[in-house]
Design a protein that fits this description.
elongated; 3 domains; about 0% strand; about 300 residues; mainly alpha
Amino acid sequence: MMEEILLVSRPLPSPSIVQMQGGKHAQRVFELLFKCASEVLLAIVTYVSDGESPVLWVGGILGLFPGFQALEFLQCYVQTVDKDPSKMMKVNTLLLQYDTTLAKEAWRQWVILSFAQSKYNKAGLLYEAWLIWMETVMWADTTDNEWYRMERSNVRPKIVDDIAQIATRRVRPIQTDDFGIPYANEPWGTTEIRMEVQVWVTKTGDMDFKGASVLDVFLWTYSLYMVCGHGRESESEWCHKALEMSIQGLLDASKEHELTILEERRELIIATIEPKVEKKVKGAKRNGRKIKDIGPVGECIQSFSGGGD
């Protein structure tokens, strides 16, 4: 019977088939289906940050669609067959959790695709630090205000305000152009926008990654990422300083949310840093003295590798 319910290639059977199995068996089926549906949310919020595969696939071996199937069946079951108030409350609570979590995951995937369509290696750990921070955000019980609140600013560039309008949409079209931010590359290379971002970043100073909304952190991170890449500002003093501050701020905020997260994501961090180290220092070794001697990058690798003299 479970196979009949969970196979997405078949239409959902009538919920009455559960009740026909008898009381104890029906309760067991309810618990198994509820567990299956709940684990979909668990898979989403605990998905491990990965620079190569940062987006969670909803099909395949993860089996998320059977979870959706289980939830739909349970909803029909408590509404038409077993109208036990406690079961109905459990299912309704799970439905609310689905609404919230799927909306947040859709937003996260939209942002990740926006980064992916303009991928650069000029911003150091900025993107990876944001991925790790975003992972801890997904674990937290974040309100709409904490997610979408936008601080007022008289110096924020117009292009950033335009992106904010798109980023706050709760429902998106399904055309290809809507899969990510439309301002992908060219605008960020203009002198006007580079100067506007510089003024904004300089006047803002240190970004409050621990107190800012998810939206504000994204706007800041994405703008800096694009100016470093297509805007070719990564070597300028103001941009280099902003990068260091932002990466450290994101990692610190991540650690405050989850104490062990940086150690758990050490492979992602090291994989991002090491190619730069090897390019700068011929023959560099992860735990060797050469890496340790090349400054902040080497120190970061040392701390995450556990290496030393």
